[in-house]
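README: folding subset

This subset contains proteins for which both the sequence and a predicted structure token string are available. Records are stored as plain text. Below is the entry for Small ribosomal subunit protein uS17 (79 residues), shown exactly as it appears on disk.
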Amino acid sequence: MPKRILEGLVVSDKGNKTIVVKVERTVLHPVLKKPVRVSKRYHAHDENNTYKAGEVARIIECAPKSKLKTWEVLPKDAA
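--- output ---
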């Protein structure tokens, strides 16, 4: 099964080797039948502390690295 790749905004880089990425997606509201933005925050492993808050990061699934971290960042030069 292929690993999922998500793209979102880095909202926190306070932890050492950890960033928090907010991923937004749109879903159709079940009653109102209008598009609604839904967001979720993912903790991702950033080995070299390269990402700062406000940047856009791409993350990929990985084996669990800690209680909350099951994602890691893709390098900035990888397109």
